[in-house]
Amino acid sequence: MSQRPAITALSFVLAVPDAMTTARWWIEVMKFDHLRDLGGWVFVMRGRCTIMLGSCPDAIPVSELGEHQYFGYVEFDDIDAYWAEIDRAKVDVLKEPRDEEWGMREFAVRTPDGHRVMFGQDLDNPVPLQS
User: Where is the VOC domain (predicted)?
Assistant: First the structure.
C-alpha cells in the first residue's frame, strides 16, 4: 500500500474590489510577502499559505454574505508572536488571542473588504506546515 499524498501548501482565492489595494493591506498590516502581480490578480504569501486576490469590482459585496464572510483559518506555530508582529492599529480585530476549550489559541480579524479570517495555534497537537 502506498503512502497517502501529502498537502504541500494551502491557498485561498478571494474576490475583492481591487486586488492591489487588498494586497497592500495583507503585506503592510498582516506582514505577508508579495508573491506576484498578474494584472487583475495579486498573490501574497506567508510560509506555505498563499492568498490569491482577484479584482472583481462587480462581485457581491462581502457585507451581503452574512455568515459566509469567513474564508479561512490560518495556523501558526506561535500565534502570540504573530499577533505581536501585525499592525493592530490598522486591523479590525474581532477577537483578541485567547485559549479556547477546543485546544486552540486563536484570534480573528476582518479585512478591509469585509472577509473574516481566523488565525490560530493548536495547543494540543502542534503540527505546523513546513515552510
Answer: 8-122
Q: Cell numbers 462587480 correspond to what residue?
A: 58
**What's the Cα-to-Cα distance from 84 to each of 2, 29, 53, 75, 126, rounded to whole Å?**
42, 12, 25, 15, 20
- Rounded CA separation 69/44 (Å): 20
Domains annotated on the chain, with CATH: 10-57+69-122 (3.10.180.10)
Identify whether the C-beta of residue 106 lies closer than 8 Å to the C-beta of residue 120: yes
Specify the pTM.
0.87
Share above pLDDT 70 across residues of the chain, in percent, rounded to a whole number? 93
What is the C-alpha to C-alpha distance for residues 20 and 129, in angstroms, rounded to an integer? 27
Helix extents (H) in 7-128: 19-28, 79-85
